[in-house]
Amino acid sequence: MIVALTFMTLLTFVQVVLRYVFETSLVWSLEATTYSFAWLVLVGMSYGVRTNAHIAVDLLTSRLPPRAGRLVAVLALCCGLAYCALMIYGSGQFLDRLMTLGTDARDIPLPRWLLTGIMPIAFLLLALRLVQAARPLFATRDSSSAAAP
Amino acid sequence: MTALFLLGALFAFLLLRVPIAVALGLSSIVTLLLFAEQSLVSLAQRFFSALQVYPLLAIPFFILAGSFMTTGGVAKRMIAFANALVGHFRGGLAMAALLACALFAAVSGSSPATVVAVGSIMIGGMARSGYTREFAAGIICNAGTLGILIPPSIVMVVYGAVTETSIGDLFIAGIVPGILLTAMLMAAVAVLARKHDFPRQPRADWRTVLKCGRDAIWGLLLVVIILGGIYSGVFTPTEAAAVSAVYAFVVAVFVYGDLGLREVPRVIAEAAKVTAMLMFIIANAYLFAFVLTTEQVPQTMSRWITDLGLPPWGFLLALNVLLLAAGSFMEATSVILIFAPIMFPIAVALGIHPVHLGIIMTLNMEIGMITPPVGLNLFVTSGVAELPVTRVIRAAVPWLLVLLAALAIVTYVPWLSLVLPRALG
């Protein structure tokens, strides 16, 4: 993530410098930047779960008794996993289509499926992190753990 | 019908405490699978392409610039400058906190970031000088919302990207309303200060003011580079953002020297985390907006509202009520992504300027940041002020009146938003 963000920042900056100082430009720069951006976000999603960075509404859940709270938390986990499963399936098919097409990216001499291939992996990671974050729900029976994930 | 199901699903997921991004995405996917002939492939494709929208690339760069400015001592110098300027008035420290938020907003495109930058220093400082923690938190929480009104602004980037309005014009247009809101908040503090007899600071002589100003100038130059660069056509808003990130890095590490090179990766990682969190929501909001479009919701709503025959002022009133409601339940950028495509054609048909609409929406999102249940500023303030969220909410609520008054003025006096873009364009 650090690499991706540094890379895209510098690349865009260099592009401006090149244009004005050297009156030239890198053809592949724009595409490389947008792909780094996508990778940064896709990998960052699961990191966000680990660091508890995703925003959620606790209007209802903060008022529930512990038992119901745990039930709702399990339901929320199921929703998250369903989302991941659907996205893995969808992006897998998307990838499959790109592989059959076999086209390269516009300016980067790499096949498109390779550059997009991170997508199902990223959602798989997201699913794993969601389960990991919800582990306290199942590990103990005492009510204090109901607040997760 | 389909639209109702979509909305219902979204709210159900939100109530279960599913993260907002997942709730937006999952409700869109389920709706498409149940009601429409769309495949999951096209959704995955849309998700990926949302992460490659060029104007949105400005977001990570502005976030990165903001992180360097926060950790690199820029906030500290801006606070010193603000304090030298207004500290000697009654309630001076509170005014300085406000002014510092406005100054920092000119280098930061996000409201929570502004709260963190100024609040982590000022709330403690105000508490030591005899203000209550709640009062300090209330001020910072509200003044921090200026972050998205005074350029640069992430919310404006998103609005510009979906409605194809010039991001440069939006940035410039935010200046006058931003100054107006700052002045109104200042006035409110002045009234309270007289009533409660708040302490004054010793008056800083002009040499101190000048010195603090010179210290802070490196940070303030950033907004000049951004606006100057975009307006003179030297670079696109996205490039301006990248340049400002590099500039902020240079200022933090080499000019001020407050940030060691070894800490730089940590700052970048933090910015990357915030970017990923925000873009995850935005990409899912794109899916949501896509479902609305396939269901012809924008068209239907446009026709419906046009048939009502509302005069422009009536439409604006309805728009504000709707956005305020949506803003308190959802995160700012996703509200823009979902509502801008619906409202834009109606507003244009009624003769409302796209830039003016953008400023109105931005101000609504500011208010959304301090209204529960999803008020990002409230949570961030509660973190830096070390107060429970409920007490921050109570402290922030009275200031809402000032923000609402500003919203009313900006809504019905388009001149405020349009004077600068017109003068320059």
Write a concise synopsis of the structure shown.
Chain A is mainly α and about 150 residues long. Chain A has six helices and no strands.
Key descriptive features of the protein:
heterodimer; A: mainly alpha; 6 helices; 70% helix; B: 425 residues; 21 helices
Overall description:
The complex is a heterodimer of chains A (about 150) and B (about 425). Chain A has about 150 residues and is mainly α. Helix content of chain A is about 70%, strand content about 0%. Chain A contains six helices and no strands. The longest helix of chain A is centred in the middle third of the chain and has 36 residues, at about 65-100. Chain A starts with a helix and ends in a 10-residue tail after the last helix. Chain B has about 425 residues and is mostly helical. In chain B, helix 5 crosses helix 6 and helix 18 (about 355-370) runs antiparallel to helix 20. Chain B is globular and about 70 Å long. Classes of the chains: A mainly alpha (about 150), B mainly alpha (about 425). At the A-B interface, helix 1, helix 2 and helix 3 of A face helix 1, helix 2, helix 3, helix 4 and helix 13 of B.
Number of helices of chain A: 6
**Kindly state the mean pLDDT of chain A as a whole number?**
82
Q: End-to-end span of chain B in angstroms?
A: 44 Å
Could you tell me the strand content of chain B as a percent range? under 5%
Q: What's the rounded overall pLDDT mean of chain B?
A: 91
Structural class of chain A: mainly alpha
Oligomer: heterodimer
Largest sheet of chain A, described in full?
none
The helix fraction of chain B, in percent, is: over 70%
Taken as a percent bin, the fraction of beta residues of chain A is under 5%
Which helices and strands appear, and what pairs or packs with what?
The complex is a heterodimer of chains A (149) and B (425).
Chain A: H1 2-22, H2 29-50, H3 66-101, H4 112-116, H5 118-133, H6 135-139
Helix pairs in contact in A: 1-2, 2-5, 3-5
Chain B: H1 2-15, H2 20-35, H3 40-50, H4 58-71, H5 74-86, H6 92-105, H7 111-128, H8 133-143, H9 154-163, H10 167-173, H11 175-196, H12 206-231, H13 237-255, H14 264-294, H15 297-308, H16 312-329, H17 332-349, H18 354-368, H19 376-385, H20 389-412, H21 414-424
